[in-house]
């Protein structure tokens, strides 16, 4: 396989399972040295080992994205990166009346504040070096109302707006910032809610859920030179939305 990202480095948050795991493997396969972020040292070591067994380079850094100081520590430990994938996210579904302060704060902290801090700390280095790429992983419910997804969707909608702001702020310096809105995808987190994936998949034109690897390839496209003139975009990897019946 060609290695168009050879010589580059990437930080992928939430890279020890699901979509983030597949993104990390795909980036490594294309030549990037990957900083694997997660909370579990055991799962982190497994991800690094699988990348290395395939001939890639990776290292693991643990951090709690709900803690602002720990996010800053993650940025410092990652060092100079050319690609930042803000993949990690939290989603706890419930109505507005059921959402307590802790749940509200956790969504804002992990889904919105953590990417903000990582961009704040890592993108200025990309600017100094003359280029880089940020991909913010979002969701279809950032733009389409979903039952019980209020604070989750709102936090991701905020991330999409930051994507557009950052594209303007950093684009002139050669740093591209884009978002990837994800549809129903089979991951350990989504399969924990019985019937949810099937119900959402039924609203897509394909009528099926996505594999994490399908989403990963879209994310890596946005991060790669193949998307060199794409900036401030929200790419929908959602399986297409069915038309409203007449």
TrEMBL record:
Catalyzed reactions: a (3R)-hydroxyacyl-[ACP] + NADP(+) = a 3-oxoacyl-[ACP] + NADPH + H(+)
CDD domains named among the record's database cross-references: SDR_c (cd05233)
InterPro entries in alphabetical order: NAD(P)-bd_dom_sf, SDR, SDR_fam
Keywords: Cell wall, Oxidoreductase, Secreted
Annotated localization: Secreted, Cell wall
Superkingdom, natural source: Bacteria
Membrane-spanning intervals of the chain: none
Keyword Oxidoreductase in record: yes
Signal sequence, renumbered to the chain: none
GO molecular function: 3-oxoacyl-[acyl-carrier-protein] reductase (NADPH) activity
Similarity comment: Belongs to the short-chain dehydrogenases/reductases (SDR) family.
Name of this chain's protein: 3-oxoacyl-[acyl-carrier-protein] reductase MabA
């Amino acid at each position: 396989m060609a290695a168009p990202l050879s010589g580059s480095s990437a930080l992928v948050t939430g890279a020890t399972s699901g979509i983030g795991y597949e993104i990390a493997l795909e980036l490594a396969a294309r030549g990037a040295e990957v900083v694997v972020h997660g909370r579990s040292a055991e799962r982190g070591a497994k991800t690094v080992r699988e990348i290395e067994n395939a001939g890639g380079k990776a290292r693991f850094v643990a951090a709690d994205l709900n803690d602002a100081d720990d996010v800053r520590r993650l940025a410092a430990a990652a060092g100079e990166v050319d690609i930042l994938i803000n993949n990690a996210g939290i989603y706890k579904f419930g109505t507005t009346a059921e959402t307590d302060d802790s749940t509200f704060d956790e969504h804002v902290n992990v889904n919105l504040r953590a990417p903000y801090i990582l961009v704040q700390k890592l993108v200025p280095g990309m600017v100094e070096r003359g280029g880089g790429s940020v991909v913010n992983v979002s969701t279809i419910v950032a733009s389409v109302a979903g039952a019980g997804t209020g604070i989750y969707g709102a936090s991701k909608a905020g991330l999409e707006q930051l994507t557009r702001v950052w594209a303007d702020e950093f684009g002139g310096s050669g740093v591209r910032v884009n978002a990837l809105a994800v549809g129903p995808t089979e991951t350990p987190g989504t399969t924990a809610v019985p019937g949810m994936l099937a119900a959402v998949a039924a609203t897509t034109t394909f009528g099926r859920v996505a594999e994490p690897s399908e989403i990963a390839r879209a994310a890596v496209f946005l991060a790669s030179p193949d998307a060199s003139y794409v900036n401030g975009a929200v790419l929908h990897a959602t399986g297409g939305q069915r038309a409203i019946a007449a």
